[in-house]
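We close this part of the discussion by returning to an individual protein. The encoding preserves chain order, so positions in sequence and tokens coincide. The sequence in question and its structure tokens are set out directly beneath this paragraph:

===
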Amino acid sequence: MAAIIHLLFATMPPRASSSKTAITAGILAGLLAAALGAYYVYQPPASSTGPAMQEAPAAQADDKAVNALLALPEIRAWSAHIEKASGGRSHGAVMETAPEQRLVDGQTYFQLSFFENAPDAAHRWESFLVTPDGKRILVEDTAEGELLSLERWRKESAPMKRVPN
């Protein structure tokens, strides 16, 4: 038994260190240091009173405004028509068209538009102003430069006639 152990140690000479091994180890150590540095710099703040918590209510209000616009029967009908007419290649989309809110008669509004989102381009169908709570929606008449209530817009523009039944 002692002879076998002696043979194993005798047949395995120590390996010489190569410069490739040192370079590889150095690169890996550098990448690890860079990753840890990036994690440290870009980690979210630990306190819950930071800027991230202050921005959350605005995002929720924006969601309410978008959801109120998406609930309109005209928007639902237009979206369905776009999907069907394009064979699923185009879709209806609501997008914020200006990052700042617009003030109208002392009330702030999100500036949103309904677009036909085609593979090659986006086509605006209509522009809207929606309160952060989604309870009031105005339609922007870009040709005349005035704001219309939903009722007036439906009466004057007949938006449901844009799509076949």
